Amino acid sequence: MGKYLEKLAKFLGGFQLVIGIVAIVVAVLSMLDDIGIGNIVLLIVGLMLAASIMTALPAVGKYIAKLTKWLGASQTLIGVIALIVGIWVLL
Predict the structure, then answer these.
(1) pLDDT for position 10
(2) What is the DSSP letter of 79?
(3) Are 43 and 24 in contact (CB under 8 A)?
(4) Measuring CA to CA, how many Å separate 54 from each of 38, 68, 89?
(5) How many domains would you assign to the chain?
(6) What is the pLDDT of residues 37-84, one digit of tens each?
(7) Structural domain boundaries enclosing 8
(8) With b meaning 16 or more CB within 10 Å and e meaning fewer, what string describes 7-39?
(9) pTM of the full predicted structure?
């Protein structure tokens, strides 16, 4: 099963930027109605996934780059937390 998950991760890695942008948009739109832990985690994960394009934003790019660099050190932990929170929100 491990090699199938590895193939899936490689395939989804090509869509990392798109997934990140969609995650940010969904998180922001969801926060207009209700701010919850799921929305906050979704926003953080979206920022991490879309870091390459977010750093190009003129006004906030350098701050987002610092944030994603700081969060990048804990990327695995944040991913596990995102999975747990995502499953918890769905239940």
Answers:
(1) 83
(2) H
(3) yes
(4) 21, 10, 27
(5) 1
(6) 888 888 888 888 887 777 777 777 778 777 777 777 777 788 888 888
(7) 2-90
(8) eeeeeeeeeeeebbeebbeebeebeeeeeeebb
(9) 0.72
